[in-house]
Amino acid sequence: MLNIVLFGPPGAGKGTQSENLIKKYNLVHLSTGDILRSEVAEKTALGLEAKKLMDQGLLVPDEVVIGMIESKVDSNKNANGFIFDGFPRTTAQAEALDQLLARKNTSITRMLALEVNNDELTKRLLLRGKDSGRADDRNEEIIRKRIEEYNSKTAPLKAYYSSQNKFTGINGIGSIEEIFERLSDAIEKITA
Ligand code: AMP
Q1: Do the Cβ atoms of 107 and 98 come closer than 8 Å?
Q2: Per-residue DSSP letters for 110-142?
Q3: CA 34 / ligand 1 centre spacing (Å)
Q4: CA–CA dist 137, 125 (Å, integer)
């Protein structure tokens, strides 16, 4: 199996690149942000709780997202592999993911991290907010909060995967096509 953690701060381009990668490598895309937004749209109990945190740019509790990922991995038994997008976001989530995959006799192949500076991120998110309909992309204050959450809780995962020799940084500035090519080259090197 090819199991990729596509990593990077909000606005790094994880969603867009995941869509390209799943087509090229025949993988299943698991985005906790997308799953949460569909729970919010359906007004489930989980969605209503999560929305309060999402609207403030805060992370939802680990056990909520871990449970979501477990059930999605379970329901895709014959997958070639997964792109994890926006998950894991904390060390507890990364540990739970390792344990879940080990139970399935597989593991994370590699973390690919899209690297983009803060000014570019804020610019991209505000632009996206104009047509994505996402409340959390429209307000500069909330964007700052999301980047703060990323820096304090999520950025340490770089060290987590580095210590397993599974970290690859990718320059996340450029056209969508250029960045896709960098990601594909990295995957081909790993699988060669
Ligand atoms: P995203 O679409 O990945 O930017 O996620 C949007 C929002 O959903 C985040 O700001 C969090 O509130 C929540 N969220 C998504 N994924 C996670 C996760 N793995 N852990 C905690 N909260 C998450």
Answers
A1: yes
A2: EEEEEE--HHHHHHHHHHHHHHH--GGGT-HHH
A3: 8
A4: 5
Residue 89 in contact with ligand 1 by CB distance below 6 A:
yes
Sequence spans of domains, the chain: 2-27+79-191
Tens-place pLDDT, residues 138-180:
888 999 999 999 999 999 999 999 999 999 999 999 999 999 9
Q: What gap in Å lies between CA 143 and CA 118, rounded to an integer?
A: 10
| DSSP for residue 179 | H
Helices (H), the chain: 14-25, 32-41, 45-54, 62-74, 91-103, 118-132, 140-149, 157-162, 176-191
20 pLDDT tier (thresholds 50, 70, 90)? very high
Question: Kindly report the CA angle at 144 between 136 and 110, in degrees rounded to 5?
Answer: 85
Q: Residue 156 — φ and ψ, nearest 5°?
A: -60, -15
Is 146 marked active-site?
yes
Helix (H, G, I), strand (E, B), or coil: what is residue 171? strand
2-27+79-191 has CATH 3.40.50.300 classification: yes
Task: Given the residues 37, 51, 72, 89, select the one marked as catalytic.
Answer: 89
- Whose alpha carbon is nearest atom 12 of ligand 1? 54
